[in-house]
Amino acid sequence: MENTFFYQLFQSLTAAEVRQFRKFAASPYFNGRPQLCLLLDYFAKNGHQPAAPDPEKAFKAAFPAEQYDDQKWRLTLSQLFKLAEQFIAWQELATGENLGLSLSQAYRKRGLANHFQRTIQKLEKQQESTETRSAGFHENQYKIAWEKYRSHSAGKRTEAFNLQEVSDAMDAAFIARKLRHVCFSLSHQAVYQAEYRFGLLDEILREVRESPWLLDSPAINLYYHCFHALKTGSGESDFEVFKNLLFDQGHLLPSEEQRNLFLLAINNGIRQINAGRPAYDRPVLDLYRTALDNDLLLENGHLSRFAFNNIVAIAVRIGETDWVENFIHQYKNSLEREHRNATFSLNLARLQYTRKNYKEALLQLQHSDYKDLINNLIAKTLQLKIYYETNEYEVLEAHLRNMKTYIRRQRAIGYHKQNYLNIIRFTQALVEMNPFAKKEHTALRDAILNERSLTEKDWLLDMMDR
């Protein structure tokens, strides 16, 4: 177990961190076992291979004069693992704000008032100069205010201390974190149909309404309006307010929080689009484009194929064909290698279909094997539309049967299943409809309009009007 844990931890270290770890291990204050340094040197040379180094060779590096002893090997590796844990914990604690707060606490406990005051003033200047205004910012404000109060109390001073500063900072930190948690919970709830209790949420919302100063905090302001955009019964105006606020104030949060907020907004917009609300197309594409411009969508250098698909689908739907053609080629190499060619050719096919280059679209669809379930369904839907629009009805009939069979065999398809079965059902109805039967035509149109799970609603209605 220690072997696995240590090896996984070691592989997560960068080359610079390995060098820092070596210096850490060489310090007698942290480590009094020289064999751990020898073992660490061995891992530094051999530890970034796909498989863990051979235990006997590693043991020999730590104990050159001894025969391999499995029990001693396990104990030594366990000691090195604990030292590695100390190192990464020390790295976290040694950051500027953590170090400053720890130092101020130490000075306060030792009664060194001047040292304490100098450290606190430095922390306050750092707080004011920081560009981000996240929940963590308010947490630090609270900790600094609390330390000032404790120092004041310990000094037994006669003048009053303004405890309101402590209370306000504590409230802001808690409210920002609570609203952030609620937003993530609502997003999770929408996908997995989970139910959560939100505790003090109603009181928090009332407090924000009654204390407008809280909205001066970008973190509270963003998560407060994110909540209103995500909650049941929200509308386009709530979404638009949150989107614009994200564009204006998102940069005041750390990159990870910016990314998470953009994803919350985008995923909510995608759900609205999938529910048949095309008014969300343009705002969602704006969110994607802004997130791309600010490098918020790439994770470990890769763009999700799902985001890639969504961007292309929305862009071609609203006529942004020139922009999306550039996007497809620009971000091709940002896709994970495993899915790169299939995703690239699929989305080129979508673009060619939009431009009515049907032969080129079908050719692109033949270039890759669509092992991914969703990509496969997108490709099959694209073929369906091309066959219908080119009057290849016999081919279309066979394609619809095969597509239905394929969907029914899939177990891990989730909420997509009903959508694609509806596409098949209504396309079949289009093929079979008597164009001169007005009542039949009206009934089919009404059925399409009233169907909630139907991503190709606009296309079906367009085909009815041909």
Could you characterize the architecture of this molecule?
The chain is an all-alpha fold. Among the domains are: 92 residues, no CATH class; 123 residues, no CATH class; 85 residues, no CATH class. The protein has 23 helices and no strands. α19 runs parallel beside α21. The longest helix has 29 residues. 32% of the residues are buried. The model has no long low-confidence stretch (mean pLDDT 91).
Summarize the structure.
The chain has 466 residues and is mainly alpha-helical. The protein has helices spanning 2-12, 15-26, 34-46, 55-62, 70-93, 96-109, 113-129, 135-154, 164-192, 201-210, 218-230, 236-249, 255-274, 281-293, 305-317, 321-330, 337-354, 358-365, 373-389, 393-409, 416-432, 438-450, 457-464. The longest helix is centred in the middle third of the chain and has 29 residues, at 164-192.
H and E order: HHHHHHHHHHHHHHHHHHHHHHH
Low-confidence stretches: none
SS field, number of helical segments:
23
Helix fraction?
over 70%
The mean pLDDT is: 91
Structural class, from secondary structure content? mainly alpha
Measured by DSSP, the beta-strand proportion falls in: under 5%
- In whole angstroms, the N-to-C terminal distance is 66 Å
Q: What is the subunit organization of this protein?
A: single chain
Radius of gyration over alpha carbons? Answer: 30 Å
The tally of beta strands, per DSSP, is: 0
Question: Largest sheet, described in full?
Answer: none
**Looking at the structure, what is the overall shape?**
flat
